[in-house]
């Protein structure tokens, strides 16, 4: 199969109304820092019309986009002034871009000196005061409360404990010493042969020598070369031969990659996972006492560093994989590693990248050792848009219409050229005089000072009198452009070219403008003329009648943000006609584009029997698309995918890639404090990654639906995540890891690409709003807790506050759900999207809260699991079953972390934390503490909403709260912006009364009946009781953070109950519908074995002894037994010692299975003969069970586990026995102490 562009029949053409020199005249644009101003000028509709598109060529649009990107990203820039080179239509394009980028734009002055100014919109706090009515019923409850509990009017504030360094961080890797690896005595010959065929094998010794002789080594190699799985083995094998102890940490940006790498390396070594090769991710761990290599996510390894850098003493090698992806945690890890290079010379750091250009990392670490290793891709031939248009001879009605207009304009130019010879003698004499004055101007005046005077007369004649721009001197034949080139007048050259001046007009001696520039030795002018000639071509007498080429016509008629599905279909037809086999992978920005492309393909005249369409999207069910990885013998696979297929998913038989060059990225604008999901051009490195998908099994082809010029203007690498996301999580990490002498910004500024001062300041401000940092930017007690939870800070605060107010259960589910991606999947057919939304609305049942759906879907899913209908439920409601199981696991993880940090007291029953779970109003009040200041309130008689930073916003139309008029207050997840409007998403109704009670850290009380929160919201009441109760609530929160047991004092339980009552009354009086049965506890999941994490029914864990059916016993025991033991507070150790079985909790159809597993356990685990908890733990070690006792988090029990019910660094209580498990490690040996205590 071969593809070759047809010869282009069209000649080069230059649009006479376009600008040819804007790309360099921008360098001379003026920049000023002036006071902010709001542009009140109305804008036209945000749709580019044909005239604007034609007048703004691609190279100019690219440069304008780059100016906007730089201006918006630089917080020090407040104003940008475009030069007066642009015509009216091009300025309209700039206004269009300004509105998209949320920047004010306005033009000033008159032609030809009219300039367009960009200004950032000012950010001013919108101070508001509100009178809040309170019902008599609420006042009666508060009055009764203070009459009965007069001592609670003003509680004393406990002294805040000083923040100390973290000694234990939950969920980190085991702190074992390096060990001497064992030599594999009988390796599998087939596997060894396969390893030797990998491209890296020939460079094995080169890699090892580089690692041994350098502290930092950078290795770049293409995807599929084997660097992730082979380099750790090379190090391990060398250490085994030389009998050198080693401990290797391999970090991965994604959990699935860490697991897959560990499984692959274990398979190649002929060992079970968890022996010499282990892994640990957030919800799962499989490591053993004799593990030498640990694959983990970056976040897990960072938790080790949060305990102090002493952990690096026990590590010999750290491999940081996929550094080219530039995720925020990997960049943060690089800061930490660089800070510790000199302190720990024993640690070898290996940075691995899939891109060739590693210059940035080389300069960052001052590393001289960079290995660029070969991959095994087959040759791939690339084609750009101009080639595709030529191959397919693609044309649209708009292109034909533009062609007709251009021919008319060219005919007009010819007529003008004829008329130029017929100027009157007076007009010609005036023109000759003005040209001579311009030529001799610099003899008498300073040209730089009197520039406008020098060119004013010329421009007057050209614009007002209609003199042709190429009109020549009557005797000497030079034109205005020729003189400008001789003088080196860059500004005037730009204006003349904008007016359509030709660079090929010759004077009386045959010299052109380029010859004038050469004779005057004006190198900068020559560069400009060369650029004009290469970009837009030359209009000469020989080609004046020729047509423009296809690319120019396409560029004139197709907006940059438009995806041409007709062109994709035409290209598929062309591929079908020129090749006989091979899958086609089509990269598209998002779900809507995938569905539209599919519609165009289905509705085309391509024979449906010859192809099959597949979809790849992170929010679509992959089970429906599993055939995408199979070879279809009689059909071609057309795979419509987002950027997930760049690295995460590989389809081996792809031969052709069609790349539209766009990606949807979520960008956080720290200046405007909003998130936008933007469709942007990809980087060149991403384009190369996409191209590489085509050559894995045979030579391939890549068709890029963007021009070579666009490709050359693309950024080299994608924007690092640390520059485009909010930084609250990293700021918390920095407060723990950074040296005490260094503030947060100073530490983050050490990143390879430092975030802006404004981005860090906004993140710190938000943490201060949460109460995680104080005014001096020091970590508070709340911040100390939040840093240890595997949650974003606002969700962590909600979780902690729920423990204080005894409403843990629903908040636990909500936090676990919101910590994951949306559980609702996008349907594989566009016509089902409406049905999917209707099913989501059905779950909510008109409750005005988008957040309630997470709780309701989890509860209904559990009911479906109990009835054995999990898959049917997920299919009916378009829910991801794997996400639901992940939410279940995350619930267990979070509860385990609350126990580990001591906030959930182990001496108490879990019911003690759930007294108030039946109140949806209290759930929302608790959520407010995390979401504040994301508050919206009605303005303009309910026609719009206002927020802290914006005067007018609306709710996204996919929200249950969408309405034409707004009568309530709302809290929301985030603010986003489409092309013209600000909108809020993830919305729930609340009341100002709730906000006045629960929100705010920096608070002042102007009077006994009013409160002002964070210098923004002021609430006034007719009574002083609400303010008194707010002070009571805030003192309870403060004291409980200092001492979590404080909230269980009787008087504080009364406060929680009173809060629950009054917010319920407030919601009822406002007529707000609430969620029923919100406090339902997770049910006993009889069908838990369908959870893919347990691998029970398919027997996937071959390393366990099959005679014991260990996997089945593991899952069965965790699910059917210990979960019940936890909720019912049954001492399961004592029960097994006595041989008792809780049959009443086990369904009848499972009792025989239980007896079988129990018998197997008696033979192989000696479980029924356990004399103490120590043996219980050690027997689990011996069988290498990859789980904790309660099946929560699936961590090894002998290390610090990720589970709900066991945290070995905390005192535990099980119905009368208090075990203090303290593990110490020495050369892989663990000692566990047990002590008895009195019953509680």
TrEMBL record:
It holds the Pfam family Ank_2. Keywords: ANK repeat, ATP-binding, Hydrolase, Nucleotide-binding, RNA-binding. Residues 58-122 form the R3H domain. Residues 1-28, 1217-1240 are annotated as: Disordered. Residues 208-374 form the Helicase ATP-binding domain. Gene3D superfamilies: 1.20.120.1080, Ankyrin repeat-containing domain (1.25.40.20), P-loop containing nucleotide triphosphate hydrolases (3.40.50.300), R3H-like domain (3.30.1370.50). GO terms for molecular function: ATP binding; hydrolase activity; RNA binding. Residues 567-738 form the Helicase C-terminal domain. InterPro entries: Ankyrin_rpt (IPR002110), Ankyrin_rpt-contain_sf (IPR036770), DEAD-box_helicase_OB_fold (IPR011709), DEAD/DEAH_box_helicase_dom (IPR011545), HA2_WH (IPR048333), Helicase-assoc_dom (IPR007502), Helicase_ATP-bd (IPR014001), Helicase_C-like (IPR001650). SMART domains: DEXDc, HA2, HELICc. The keyword Ion transport does not apply. ANK repeats lie at residues 476-508. SUPFAM superfamilies: Ankyrin repeat (SSF48403), P-loop containing nucleoside triphosphate hydrolases (SSF52540), R3H domain (SSF82708). Belongs to the DExH box helicase family. This is RNA helicase.
């Amino acid at each position: 199969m071969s593809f070759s562009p047809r010869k282009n029949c069209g000649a080069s053409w230059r649009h006479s109304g376009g600008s040819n020199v804007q790309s360099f005249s921008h360098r001379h644009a003026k920049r000023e820092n002036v006071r902010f101003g709001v542009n009140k000028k109305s804008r036209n509709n945000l749709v580019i019309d044909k005239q604007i598109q034609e007048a703004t060529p691609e190279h100019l649009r690219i440069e304008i986009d780059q100016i906007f990107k730089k201006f918006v990203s630089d917080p020090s820039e407040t104003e940008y002034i475009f030069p007066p080179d642009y015509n009216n239509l091009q300025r309209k394009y700039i206004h269009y871009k300004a509105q998209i980028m949320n920047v004010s734009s306005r033009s000033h002055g008159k032609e030809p000196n009219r300039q367009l100014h960009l200004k950032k919109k000012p950010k001013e706090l919108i101070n508001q005061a509100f009178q809040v009515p309170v019902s008599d019923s609420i006042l009666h409850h508060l009055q009764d409360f203070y009459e009965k509990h007069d001592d609670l009017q003003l509680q004393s504030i406990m002294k805040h404990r000083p923040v100390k360094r973290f000694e234990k961080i939950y969920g980190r890797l085991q702190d074992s010493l390096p060990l001497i690896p064992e030599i594999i005595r009988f390796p599998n010959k087939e596997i060894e042969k396969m390893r030797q065929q990998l491209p890296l094998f020939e460079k094995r010794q080169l890699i090892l020598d580089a690692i041994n002789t350098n502290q930092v080594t950078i290795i770049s190699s293409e995807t599929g070369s084997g660097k992730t799985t082979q380099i750790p083995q090379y190090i391990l094998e060398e250490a085994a031969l030389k009998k050198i102890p080693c401990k290797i940490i391999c970090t991965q940006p994604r959990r699935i990659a860490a697991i897959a790498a560990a499984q692959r390396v274990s398979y190649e070594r002929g060992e079970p996972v968890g022996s010499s090769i282990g892994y640990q991710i957030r919800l799962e761990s499989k490591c053993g006492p004799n593990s030498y290599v640990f694959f983990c996510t970056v976040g897990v390894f960072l938790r080790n560093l949060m305990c102090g850098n002493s952990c690096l003493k026990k590590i010999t090698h750290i491999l940081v994989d996929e550094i080219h992806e530039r995720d925020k945690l990997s960049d943060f890890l690089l800061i930490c590693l660089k800070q510790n290079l000199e302190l720990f010379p024993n640690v070898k750091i290996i940075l691995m990248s899939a891109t060739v250009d590693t210059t940035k990392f080389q300069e960052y670490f001052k590393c001289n050792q960079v290995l660029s290793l070969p991959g095994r891709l087959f040759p791939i031939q690339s084609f750009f848009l101009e080639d595709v248009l030529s191959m397919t001879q693609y044309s649209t009605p708009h292109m034909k219409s533009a062609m007709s207009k251009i021919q008319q304009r060219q005919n007009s130019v010819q007529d003008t050229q004829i008329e130029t010879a017929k100027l009157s003698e007076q007009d010609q004499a005036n023109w000759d005089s003005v040209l001579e004055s311009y030529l001799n101007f610099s003899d008498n005046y300073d040209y730089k000072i009197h520039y406008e005077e020098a060119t004013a007369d010329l421009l007057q004649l050209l614009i007002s009198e209609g003199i042709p721009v190429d009109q020549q001197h009557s005797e000497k034949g030079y034109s205005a452009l020729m003189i400008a080139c001789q003088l080196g007048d860059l500004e005037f050259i730009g204006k003349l070219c904008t007016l359509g001046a030709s660079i090929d007009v010759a004077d009386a001696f045959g010299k052109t403008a380029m010859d004038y520039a050469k004779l005057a030795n004006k190198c900068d002018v020559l560069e400009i003329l060369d650029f004009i000639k290469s970009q837009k071509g030359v209009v000469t007498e020989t080609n004046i009648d020729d047509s423009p080429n296809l690319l120019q016509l396409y560029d004139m008629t197709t907006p940059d943000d438009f995806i041409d599905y007709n062109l994709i279909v035409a290209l598929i037809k062309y591929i079908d006609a020129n090749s006989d086999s091979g899958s086609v992978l089509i990269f598209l920005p998002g779900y809507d584009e995938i569905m539209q492309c599919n519609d165009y393909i289905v509705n085309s005249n391509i024979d449906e029997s010859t192809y099959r369409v597949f979809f790849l999207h992170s929010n679509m069910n992959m089970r429906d698309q599993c055939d995408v990885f199979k070879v279809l013998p009689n059909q071609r696979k057309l795979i419509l995918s987002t950027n997930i297929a760049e690295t995460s998913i590989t389809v081996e038989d792809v031969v052709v890639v069609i790349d539209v060059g766009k990606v949807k990225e979520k960008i956080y604008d720290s200046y405007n404090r909003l998130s936008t999901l933007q469709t942007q051009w990809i980087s060149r490195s991403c384009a190369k990654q996409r191209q590489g998908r085509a050559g894995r099994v045979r030579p391939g082809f890549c068709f890029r639906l963007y021009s070579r010029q666009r490709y050359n203007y693309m950024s080299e690498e994608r924007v690092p995540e640390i520059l485009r996301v909010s930084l609250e999580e990293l700021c918390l990490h920095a407060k723990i890891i950074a040296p005490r002498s260094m503030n947060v910004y100073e530490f983050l500024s050490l990143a390879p690409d430092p975030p802006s001062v404004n981005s860090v300041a906004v993140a710190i401000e938000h943490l201060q709003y949460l109460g995680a940092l104080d005014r001096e930017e020091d970590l508070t007690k709340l911040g100390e807790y939040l840093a240890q939870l595997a949650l974003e800070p606002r969700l962590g605060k909600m979780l902690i506050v729920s423990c204080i107010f005894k409403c843990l259960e629903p908040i636990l589910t909500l936090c676990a759900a919101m910590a994951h991606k949306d559980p609702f999947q996008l349907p594989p057919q566009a016509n089902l999207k409406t049905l999917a939304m209707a099913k989501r609305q059905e779950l909510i049942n008109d409750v005005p809260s988008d957040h309630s759906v997470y709780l309701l879907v989890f509860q209904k899913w559990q009911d479906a699991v109990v009835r054995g209908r999990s898959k049917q439920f997920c299919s009916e409601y378009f829910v991801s079953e794997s996400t639901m199981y992940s939410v279940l696991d995350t619930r267990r993880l979070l509860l385990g972390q609350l126990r580990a940090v001591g906030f959930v007291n182990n001496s108490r029953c879990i019911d003690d934390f759930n007294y108030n779970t039946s109140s949806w109003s209290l759930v929302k009040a608790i959520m407010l503490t995390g979401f504040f200041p994301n508050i919206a309130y009605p303005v303009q008689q309910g026609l719009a909403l206002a927020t802290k930073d914006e005067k007018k916003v609306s709710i996204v139309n996919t929200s249950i709260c969408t309405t034409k008029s707004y009568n309530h207050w709302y809290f929301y997840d985030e603010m986003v912006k489409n092309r013209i409007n600000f909108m809020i998403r993830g919305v729930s109704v609340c009341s100002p009364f709730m906000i006045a009670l629960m929100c705010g850290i920096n608070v002042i009380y102007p009077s006994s009946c009013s409160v002002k929160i964070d210098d923004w919201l002021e609430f006034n009441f007719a009574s002083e009781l609400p303010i008194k109760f707010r002070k009571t609530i805030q003192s309870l929160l403060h004291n409980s953070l200092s001492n979590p047991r404080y909230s269980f004092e009787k008087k504080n339980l009364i406060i929680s109950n009173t809060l629950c009552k009054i917010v319920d009354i407030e919601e009822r009086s406002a007529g707000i519908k609430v969620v029923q049965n919100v406090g339902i506890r997770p049910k006993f999941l009889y069908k838990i074995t369908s959870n893919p994490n347990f691998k029970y029914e398919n027997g996937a864990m071959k390393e366990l002894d099959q005679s014991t059916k260990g996997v089945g016993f593991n899952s069965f025991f965790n699910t059917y037994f210990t979960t019940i033991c936890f909720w019912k507070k049954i001492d399961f150790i004592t029960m097994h010692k006595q041989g008792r079985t809780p049959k009443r909790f086990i369904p009848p159809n499972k009792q025989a299975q239980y007896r079988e597993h129990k018998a197997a356990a008696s033979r192989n685990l000696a479980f029924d003969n356990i004399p103490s908890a120590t043996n219980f733990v050690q027997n689990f070690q011996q069988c290498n069970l990859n789980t904790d006792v309660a099946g929560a988090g699936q961590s090894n029990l002998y290390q610090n586990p990720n589970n709900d019910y066991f945290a070995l660094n905390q005192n535990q209580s099980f119905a009368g026995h208090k075990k203090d498990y303290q593990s110490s490690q020495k050369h892989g040996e663990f000692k566990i102490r047990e002590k008895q205590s009195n019953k509680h």
